[in-house]
């Protein structure tokens, strides 16, 4: 990416159509793929209840994102970011949720949701891409996240259950004045514009599994990453590389 492009970030919300869809893992893998292409990526956890993003991080998780939108609103965003050591040319910094129930409740208020949008705006000014890990649309922070996004990728199981959940998600997005740009099916291809096959590297410690890998899983992550940020990046010859051309999926 050129120096002039680094000032414009793309905010992408990955919204789970249902619990257990694999949204957090998808976000982590896509962030790693973008970083491998030299991008600087910020991952913001809006899935306060499950707090799954923290499982992929090492070191301190405080102040977490819920503190940044409640008790520590005056703190710089950087205070709550945890760097992921990926050994690639780019960078991934994450703002995880890691909070007691009392603060989780306060982080779900309308006022805190507005603060979350402000934090996302700050991240967008500092990073090439901001990826949001969003739970099913049923709480203020989830609504704030999708409203702050330039693009929304709905993540769902590739199954009949996923098909029904995607339809509900489309309806909920419409209720809050938003719409999906992309639907990603995980562990199957029953729904979606793109699909991500299952991987044997299921543990958080094994993620991201797309780095330095070949095969269907890595290729799928590359395609989802390219489609999510809405950029067509041409890789020479037939080598897909990271962020290969996605043609019809760009600009949906």
TrEMBL record:
SUPFAM superfamilies: P-loop containing nucleoside triphosphate hydrolases. InterPro entries: AAA_dom, DNA_Partitioning_ATPase, P-loop_NTPase. Residues 10-171 form the AAA domain. It holds the Pfam family AAA_31. Gene3D superfamilies: P-loop containing nucleotide triphosphate hydrolases. This is AAA family ATPase. It comes from Halobellus rubicundus. The lineage of its organism: Archaea, Methanobacteriati, Methanobacteriota, Stenosarchaea group, Halobacteria.
């Amino acid at each position: 990416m050129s120096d002039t492009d680094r000032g414009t970030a793309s905010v992408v919300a990955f919204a789970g159509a249902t619990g257990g869809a694999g949204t957090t893992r998808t976000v982590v893998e896509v962030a790693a793929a973008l970083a491998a292409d030299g991008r600087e990526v910020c991952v913001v956890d809006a899935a306060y209840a499950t707090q799954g993003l923290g499982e992929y991080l090492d070191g301190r998780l405080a102040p977490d994102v819920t503190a940044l939108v409640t008790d520590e609103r005056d703190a710089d965003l950087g205070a709550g970011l945890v760097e992921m050591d990926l050994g690639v040319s780019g960078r991934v910094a994450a703002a995880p949720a890691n909070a007691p129930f009392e603060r989780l409740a306060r982080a779900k208020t309308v006022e805190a949701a507005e603060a979350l949008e402000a934090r996302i705006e700050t991240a967008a000014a500092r990073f090439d891409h901001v990826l949001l890990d969003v739970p099913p649309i049923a709480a203020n922070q989830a609504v704030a996240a999708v409203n702050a996004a330039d693009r929304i990728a709905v993540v769902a199981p590739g199954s009949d259950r996923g098909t029904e959940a995607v339809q509900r998600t489309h309806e909920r997005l419409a209720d809050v004045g938003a719409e999906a740009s992309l639907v990603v099916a995980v562990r199957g291809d029953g729904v979606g514009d793109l699909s991500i096959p299952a991987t044997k590297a299921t543990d958080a410690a094994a993620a991201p599994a797309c780095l330095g890998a070949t095969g269907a899983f890595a290729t799928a992550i590359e395609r989802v990453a390219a489609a999510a940020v809405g950029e067509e990046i041409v890789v020479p010859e037939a080598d897909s590389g990271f962020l290969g051309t996605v043609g019809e999926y760009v600009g949906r």
